[in-house]
Amino acid sequence: MNRQEEALKAFIGLKRTQDLFDTILKQHVTSYGLTLNEFAVLELLYHRGEQAVQKIKEKILIASSSTTYVIDRLCTKRFVTRRQDKVDKRVIYVNLTIEGHSLIETMFPSHANLIESFFEQLKTEEIHNFREDLKLISRTIQEKLDDQENEVK
Asked: Alpha-carbon distance 142 to 97, whole Å?
């Protein structure tokens, strides 16, 4: 098999694996009454503390309108609160409530164990090498996107 065929098969494998990750993770967070995006926001706030809405959007990689919708839903569920920056009124910060912190603190250990179980066939060093390979691929793709943006300008 040549390099191009190997790359195409690797890409298909990556996509199929991502679909499987999404399916099982969706089942897990749904059992707690959340969507994947809601969980992603709670998990970010749990590990990084209060965040500006813009930072949440950047970190969990969803559209601005979707970010607002997800935060609205989490506010309705009383898992997060918003506060406006005192200096720059355009900036809104989001923080976990006691209920939100309690939920994510309960959920996260089983979530982390579930993800770790996906890699049970690999040694720790192999997982590390896989992560490094993914970073390399991501950088290559980002460079291509940056080049395309520069060509348009």
From this structure: 36
